[in-house]
């Protein structure tokens, strides 16, 4: 009777405590997720792999605690990181996951943010019409929810998209609206961005004085607030203007300033742009040695970012494989424990029934047949119970052997999977070494003779005597033979790679 009253009371207490425990866990999870996402946001340009890991930890924490807002923010942060290293397909995948969740859970702030981020990807891929569609959708939501910073950003993004599309009147209208809103919000960074956007707009219209005015204001404000990203953009914009004015020396000075800041602050995309434009500038000036140096720096930085992202993806796949293996093993162990508990309950219930029957029988025999019949029946009943226990012991021992054999099979299967993963990793490393060797030939040995050929071709029209002409032609022939030799070596590397893949 006491047990029948005690169990319902315990269940009621547990059910009453569970919601408060869940709420306490969620309150603890909020600052932890915030910390991970903020770290990823502030450090993804300097440490790509660690930032990816922090964003994924925030994503897993939000999934476990069912924190929908942090799930959307985690998808958005992962997309930003992939977008920063030009993994646009992966970035779009993460953004769309967050957008679907935001629309399903009716989270307008997150929906507007993700629509704007998707528009950024289309903008970088030169799909300007798609970018405008997504910026407009985000703009309509931000007007309803009155998210003024995002509203200003969407207006500026629309202005940039229309400017690149050539719709200059619309572009100027949106940029000036964004600039007005930035001034109301005292958003210095937004003002910098929109000054630069107006400068680009006037530069496209060949209004060079207006372009110089707004580019100069953008750079001065960036230097005043000491925002490194806007300082880099300011120098890049002024370099573009000076190149249009054919002031290549001033343009080079601006580009070198941008390169110095981006290198010290790990702004990788901006640094790549500086290196590319410096290489073009030096090549136009005929400084092929310097152009080759900047081009190699650009290639090395691009390869480094790609390798970091791919390595992070491989580590994530290994973590997922380990988690799946652990889940499978836990499921088997839980099933085994549940089966044993069921058997024990059945055995206890059977023993209780047998004990009750024995007591009832003994009582009846005491009253009907006397003490002698009782002892005789009790003796037989004990023998019967002993045989049943012996049989149950044999059955349990047999099941234990079967479980041990199953565990051995699972262990062998895990070993085989680990060997397969090790072999695949070895093959990938070998292929990477071949690709690195190919890239070395392409970046170091091909560019040398090719640059000499281009330089000599430019000198041909300037030859004044047959001797100079024959000398240049002889050098052209030597460089062409050297280039042919390098191409032959590259073909040998590629043939070796194909033979390895066939094997």
Secondary structure blueprint with pairings:
Layout: H1 2-43, H2 48-65, H3 68-84, H4 88-104, H5 108-124, H6 128-145, H7 148-165, H8 168-185, H9 188-204, H10 208-225, H11 228-244, H12 248-265, H13 268-284, H14 288-368, H15 371-459, H16 466-502
Structural write-up:
With 503 residues, this protein is an all-alpha fold. It has two domains: 36-307, Alpha Horseshoe (Serine Threonine Protein Phosphatase 5, Tetratricopeptide repeat); 319-502, no CATH class. It is 91% helix and 0% strand. It contains 16 helices and no strands. It has helices at residues 2-43, 48-65, 68-84, 88-104, 108-124, 128-145, 148-165, 168-185, 188-204, 208-225, 228-244, 248-265, 268-284, 288-368, 371-459, 466-502. It is elongated and about 140 Å long. The N and C termini lie far apart (76 Å). Residues 264-291, 386-434 form a coiled coil. It is found in: Cytoplasm. One of its GO terms (cellular component) is cytoplasm. The chain crosses the membrane at residues 356-377. InterPro entries: Bac_ResReg_Asp_Phosphatase, HisK_dim/P_sf, TPR-like_helical_dom_sf, TPR_rpt.
């Amino acid at each position: 009777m006491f047990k029948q009253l005690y169990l319902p009371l315990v269940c009621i207490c547990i059910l009453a405590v569970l919601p408060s425990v869940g709420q306490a866990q969620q309150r603890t999870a909020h600052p932890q997720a915030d910390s991970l996402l903020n770290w990823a946001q502030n450090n993804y340009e300097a440490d790509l792999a660690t930032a990816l890991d922090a964003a994924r930890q925030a994503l897993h924490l939000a999934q476990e605690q069912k924190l929908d807002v942090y799930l959307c923010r985690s998808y958005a942060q992962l997309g930003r990181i992939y977008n920063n290293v030009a993994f646009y397909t992966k970035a779009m995948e993460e953004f769309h996951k967050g957008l679907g969740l935001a629309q399903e859970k009716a989270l307008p702030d997150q929906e507007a943010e993700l629509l704007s981020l998707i528009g950024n990807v289309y903008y970088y891929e030169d799909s300007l019409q798609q970018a405008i569609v997504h910026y407009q959708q985000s703009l309509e939501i931000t007007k309803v929810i009155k998210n003024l910073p995002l509203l200003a950003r969407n207006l500026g993004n629309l202005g940039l998209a229309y400017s690149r599309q050539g719709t200059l009147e619309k572009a100027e209208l949106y940029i000036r609206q964004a600039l007005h809103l930035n001034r109301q919000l005292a958003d210095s960074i937004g003002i910098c961005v929109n000054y630069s956007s107006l400068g680009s707009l006037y530069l496209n219209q060949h209004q060079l004085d207006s372009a110089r005015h707004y580019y100069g204001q953008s750079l001065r404000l960036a230097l005043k607030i000491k925002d490194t990203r806007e300082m880099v953009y300011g120098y890049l914009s002024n370099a573009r203007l000076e190149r249009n004015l054919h002031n290549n020396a001033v343009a080079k000075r601006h580009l070198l300033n941008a390169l110095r800041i981006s290198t010290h602050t790990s702004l990788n995309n901006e640094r790549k742009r500086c290196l590319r434009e410096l290489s073009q500038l030096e090549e136009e000036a005929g400084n092929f040695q310097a152009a080759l140096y900047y081009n190699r720096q650009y290639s090395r930085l691009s390869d480094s970012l790609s390798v970091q992202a791919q390595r992070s993806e491989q580590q994530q796949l290994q973590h997922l494989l380990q988690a799946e293996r652990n889940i499978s093993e836990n499921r088997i162990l839980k099933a085994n424990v549940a089966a044993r508990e069921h058997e024990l309950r059945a055995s206890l219930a059977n023993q209780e029934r047998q004990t009750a029957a024995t007591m009832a029988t003994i009582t009846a025999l005491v009253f009907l047949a006397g003490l002698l019949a009782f002892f005789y029946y009790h003796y037989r009943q004990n023998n019967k119970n002993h045989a049943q226990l012996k049989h149950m012991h044999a059955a349990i021992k047999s099941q234990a052997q079967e479980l041990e054999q199953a565990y051995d099979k699972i262990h062998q299967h895990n070993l085989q999977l680990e060997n397969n993963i090790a072999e695949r990793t070895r093959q990938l490393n070998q292929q990477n070494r071949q690709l690195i060797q190919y890239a070395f030939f392409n970046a170091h040995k091909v560019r040398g003779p090719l640059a000499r050929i281009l330089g000599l071709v430019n000198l041909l029209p300037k030859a004044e005597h047959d001797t100079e002409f024959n000398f240049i032609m002889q050098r052209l022939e030597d460089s062409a033979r050297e280039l042919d030799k390098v191409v032959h070596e590259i073909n040998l590397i590629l043939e070796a790679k194909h033979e390895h893949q066939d094997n």
